[in-house]
Amino acid sequence: MPSALPLADPAPSDGLLPETAAVGAHERNFGVYLHVPFCRVRCGYCDFNTYTATELRGAKQSDYADEAVAELRFGKSVLASSTVPDRPVSTVFFGGGTPTLLPADDLVRMLRGVTDNFDLAPGAEVTTEANPDSVDAAYLRTLAEAGFTRVSFGMQSAVPSVLATLERTHDPARVPLVVQWAREAGLGVSLDLIYGTPGETLADWRVSLETAIACAPDHVSAYSLIVEPGTKLARQIRSGVVGTPDEDLQADMYELADDLLTEAGYGWYEVSNWATDDRHRSRHNLSYWTGEDWWGVGPGSHSHVGGVRWWNVKHPAAYAQRIAAGESPAAGRETLDDETRELERILLLTRTRDGIPIRTLAPEARTAVAGLIAEELVDARQALLGRLELTRRGRLLADAVVRRLVGD
Q: Does any domain span residue 325?
């Protein structure tokens, strides 16, 4: 969750949504995202809305679970008062920050806040992110017994020098151990990797991929390092302390990831995500890419219901003050117009393996498809069957494909 919040309209203190938010709600899934904005240390590349203990200034980690539960109660009331129909929660995702810096019982209490207010759909996916050094076997068992189904470990790399550049604190040798503990608890496992760190070689990246695959997770995410303005890493690059990420090398790293993961039986389903089969795709992330509804809990969290998007105040102290006053913690919101919703639909669905039905594109976008086929950016066979699906070359140039489709 990037730390910078967009500029838009003020959000009402009662949180009420316009009537349009309820239109078609029965046709959309509903999820809950719970942001836990705490980290033991701040990684130099990270632009997420996170805080170390010295940055909380009046907020307390020990109070956070109760504040999150209070926002869930508030959300239930807002949706009911806005005539948005009740729907069971299909997916729950605890992100951060490091959710597992909180005691396991706090996460369990927050999940209970979801079920008390919204109910869980049968077979709901319940995920938490975790650092490899922030959990043990007992912690993971507690989560599984409470209804968590999945854990996503921030592995990032298996190479100590790369982890040091990223300022990650865990021992890479711990990753197989925490995966084993998660398996023993009955949890599904995803591993998150980052490639393109300054100084990382293609051989380093191969080591990380092979180590991850050897752990046999259900799901792997591999993201290219993006140097965000204002981060410590950006300052280090600007001052010459570390080098600038090499885009050509990053492309080679992506191709290596796709080769090794495909050989190991993983299939891509979004540009940066691979799973052993459809059952192990991240259903929560898919809900973002396919325009479903979700309520985001916590400082800086974003929510979306029926084309209305809003985001909470960033700092945990400001968030706690709003919650204690019984007011919406939202800092701003926007109602998306039809043009913006169509742009986002193309932007997001283009990145997925399921792609976009060509018949749903505007006429001018459909005329671009032939050129995209000729340049081997989209799959010719799938296009003949009526679906726009990126080739691997297209995945590397996904932004350019989107620009062609929207006429930029």
A: no
242 close to 232: Cβ distance less than 8 angstroms: no
Give the count of alpha carbons within 13 A of 24, CB side only. 9
Torsional sign, CA 391, 396, 400, 405:
positive
Position 3 pLDDT exceeds 70: no
Q: What percent of the chain has pLDDT over 90?
A: 86
- Where helices occur in 34-88 by DSSP H, the ranges are 61-81
Within-domain flag for 186? yes
The number of domains in the chain is: 2
Same structural domain, 72 and 191: yes
pLDDT tens digits for range 369-390? 999 999 999 999 999 999 999 9
Neighbour-count burial for 317-336, b at 16+ CB within 10 Å, e otherwise:
ebbbebbeeeebbbbbbbbb
Q: Looking at the structure, tell me whether residues 284 and 379 fall in a common domain.
A: no
Q: For 40-88, write each residue's pLDDT tens digit.
A: 887 888 888 899 888 888 899 999 999 999 999 999 999 999 999 999 9
For residues 175 and 96, membership in a common domain is answered with yes
One domain, residues 341 and 281: no
Exposure b/e, 151-170, CB count within 10 A at least 16 = b? bbbbbbbbbeebbebbebeb
Q: Which domain holds residue 350?
A: 337-408
